[in-house]
Design a protein that fits this description.
The complex is a heterodimer.
Chain A (H helix, E strand, L loop, with lengths): L2 H7 L7 H4 L3 H30 L3 H10 L12 H15 L11
Helix pairs in contact in A: 1-3
Chain B lengths: L22 H4 L1 H21 L6 H18 L5 H11 L7 H9 L15 E2 L1 H38 L5 H28 L4 E2 L1 H21 L4 H22 L2 H6 L3 H14 L13 H14 L10 H27 L4 H14 L1 H11 L3 H29 L3 H11 L3 H11 L1 H33 L9 H7 L3 H19 L1 H34 L3 H7 L4 H28 L1 H6 L1
Antiparallel strand pairs in B: 1-2
């Protein structure tokens, strides 16, 4: 039996009697399709709508506005680290030391 | 002595306790070193020969300005920042060949609602994107011009008083900070206005072929079949591309969910639904990809960075972190009673050092099971997302100083990207401190991986009470760690020898960000896809039994939060307030 056809035939009830007759591969395809649908639903529909609900909106908008790679793992992958590094290096090497304080 | 040379599918690293000369060309540890170093040498040759035009003259001019401005005013003037920006623009990756490499190795692009935008965008859509971004850019540019005028005016007034009036100096400093913030916004808006049509498919196909040959040569030498490897590699690479595309989604960036999580998830879904096809298995080489990636990661660990924020940074990142790591590990063994020592140390390192990168390096060094690494990555992902949102909100709510908040977040939030987002959300100073502390912590990975590898060879992988001979330690030592440490030492020496400015232009923004970083990302992604493709959900569930890893993570992170905050406060505000004032 064509695994896709058999998979579709038991789409409504994974553990029901119809599915028991479906091949293991067919069940696998159903599960794979179901997983893809769940991921697409979460990624494209549920998670964007949860941003304001979970109180993430200010940070989410900030990340979007500044275009920060907030899901990277190492400092060389994030542009802000390079900016911070060069800023700190120059802060130590060229610390402003000009005149101060005649107006306490 | 315990035999740790069990099934290759179960462990991240497998070695037998013998050493032969032929290991040099038949073991993946050594192949990881050869391939990693080949890539690094290639990167050095390319970028050291394609330095920015008039680099030294531009650096000298900028440094003269910086010296003059530093002597002129007691704060960072507009010219001071402009001189730093001039040096910041000097990048070997901006050379024609650097751009070609970046284009050839391009990952899927960012997208919001249409996944196809990750790999292809036509001219009409790019034009529409530019048009919709133009209004924001114009507004940001107008605000920038306004902020610049105000900053210039405030600085002029302060200069007329010879920079001796504290009130005027403070006003100028505040105006300059506003101009910097407006500049950051305008810079981000400018990138969106520059949207161009693209098609990354040909580049991805080319990259897949190059990487298949690159790893396939080693596979052939190690007794595998080049043809079978290349056939399976196409699928592993395809899933890696999908993982990168998923992580490029705007919402996923906002949640801090990166490619590692997606790679594992997609691999898991395939292996636990339709099953990983047998013909793909020759390319499911977790250890091979991880070890090669780690050798490249070694080049990104520059020891000179540990002094980037002086002594306070060393205390926050290099004293607190090992204390938390060791304490959490002991707590896991004695109190939580985690059944697996490798799981315990992987979660402890993941939580205390810097999340996924540290978990990868530690898991490989102690021969952790792939399910253990998966679990550590999952825990890190969940807590990173929470901490990235909660910590800046808490810091703002309690009115904690920016620098203290930055140091606290840099020392505790696992993922570096999340540290950047949380730090920048608080302000520029918080970002600089958070990023620098996290960067210093990143450097610790090399030391920790080395210490864990030695400790496991000498103390864990042996019969209790038995003394292990040095030669035995050598036999058991995961050799790729030598490549990892070697790359780190060589690149650290180059970094020191070149000087900060030249190193920034040709090493950091050349061989590292133009070569090592790009390929290392792909190798780790391939490794995580392989982990997913070879893992069964039931095995993963078994590792999480009783929620012990979660308890370990929560307890360890709580200790980390308390110790890091205490140490940051003592160092930045009690012992070295003059350093804090300079930031």
């Amino acid at each position: 039996m064509n695994p896709v056809i058999s998979a579709i035939s038991c789409m409504k009830d994974l553990d029901g009697p119809t599915c028991n007759t479906v091949s293991v591969r067919g069940k696998g395809i159903i599960k794979l399709l179901f997983s893809i649908i769940v991921i697409a639903f979460l990624m494209l529909f549920a998670m964007p709508r949860l941003v304001p609900v979970l109180g993430l909106k200010p940070m989410a908008e900030f990340i979007e506005e500044r275009n920060i790679d907030a899901n990277m793992y190492f400092y060389t992958e994030v542009a802000e680290f390079s900016e911070a590094n060069i800023h700190m290096d120059n802060t130590w090497a060229y610390t402003p030391t000009g005149p101060r304080n005649t107006n306490p | 002595m315990a035999d740790n040379a069990s099934s290759g599918n179960e462990q991240v690293v497998t070695d037998k306790a013998t050493s032969k000369l032929s290991d040099l060309w038949t073991k993946e540890d050594y192949w990881a070193i050869w391939l990693g170093f080949l890539m690094l040498i290639f990167g050095i040759l390319i970028f050291f020969n394609n330095t920015p035009a008039d680099m030294q003259a531009k650096i000298d001019t900028a440094n003269q300005t910086l010296t003059a401005e530093a002597a002129k005013a007691p704060f960072k003037t507009i010219a001071w920042y402009q001189a730093v920006e001039a040096k910041q623009k000097l990048k070997a990756t901006s050379s024609p060949i650097g751009k070609k490499i970046a284009s050839f190795t391009s990952k899927p692009k960012g997208w919001t609602s249409n996944p196809l935008d990750a790999i292809f965008m036509g001219k009409a859509k790019a034009d529409a994107k530019v048009q919709s971004a133009t209004a924001k850019y114009d507004a940001a540019s107008a605000k920038l011009a306004e902020a610049f005028t105000a900053a210039q005016a405030a600085e002029t007034v302060a200069a007329q008083a010879n920079f001796t009036d504290d009130t005027l100096n403070g006003t100028a400093e505040k105006s300059i900070a506003d101009w910097r913030a407006a500049s950051a916004k305008a810079s981000s808006a400018k990138k969106k206005v520059g949207a161009k049509p693209y098609n990354v498919i040909p580049g991805l196909i080319g990259l897949m072929i190059v990487l298949a040959i690159f790893f396939g040569i080693g596979m052939q030498a190690m007794g595998g079949s080049l043809g079978k490897f290349m056939a399976g590699f196409a699928i592993v690479f395809f899933i890696a591309v999908i993982a990168y595309a998923a992580s490029s989604n705007a919402t996923m960036k906002q949640y801090g969910i990166g490619y590692a999580a997606w790679a594992i998830l997609f691999g898991l879904i395939i292996s636990n639904t339709v099953g990983t096809p047998k013909w793909v298995m020759p390319a499911v080489q977790t250890e091979y990809y991880i070890k090669t990636g780690l050798v490249l990661l070694g080049a990104e660990i520059l020891f000179g960075k540990i002094l980037s924020i002086g002594v306070p940074g060393i205390f926050v990142a290099w004293v607190v972190t090992p204390i938390v790591l060791v304490t959490t590990y002991i707590f896991g063994q004695k109190v939580v009673k985690i059944p697996s020592k490798t799981l315990n140390i992987t979660v402890s390192a993941d939580m205390s050092v810097c999340g996924v990168s540290a978990a990868i390096a530690t898991a490989a060094a102690c021969r952790a099971k792939k399910e253990e690494l998966t679990l550590a990555v999952g825990l890190s992902l969940v807590f990173t997302s929470i901490m990235m949102i909660v910590m800046p909100a808490f810091i703002k709510a309690v009115g904690m100083p920016e620098i203290l908040g930055g140091a606290w977040m840099g020392g505790t939030i696992d993922a570096t990207g999340a540290v950047a987002a949380a730090g920048a959300f608080l302000g520029d100073k918080a970002l600089y401190v958070a990023a620098t502390v996290k960067m210093i912590q990143n450097v610790l990975i090399g030391v920790i991986a080395f210490c864990v590898a030695v400790y496991w060879c000498a103390r864990v992988d042996c019969i209790p009470g038995q003394k292990v001979a040095a030669v035995e330690i050598w036999h058991r030592f995961p050799k790729f760690v030598l490549g990892f440490i070697g790359a780190s030492i060589i690149f650290s020496l180059l970094d020191q020898g070149l000087g900060k400015d030249v190193s920034y232009a040709v090493l950091d923004h050349g061989a590292i960000r133009g070569m090592s970083k790009i390929f290392r990302g792909w190798f780790f992604c391939l490794a995580f896809v392989s982990i997913g493709l070879a893992t069964n959900f039931r095995e993963l569930k078994h590792q999480f039994k009783g929620g012990k890893p979660l308890i370990l993570y929560v307890c360890g992170q709580s200790l980390n939060l308390i110790l890091t905050l205490t140490m940051a406060y003592i160092m930045f505000y009690k012992v070295f307030p003059e350093i804090t004032a300079r930031i």
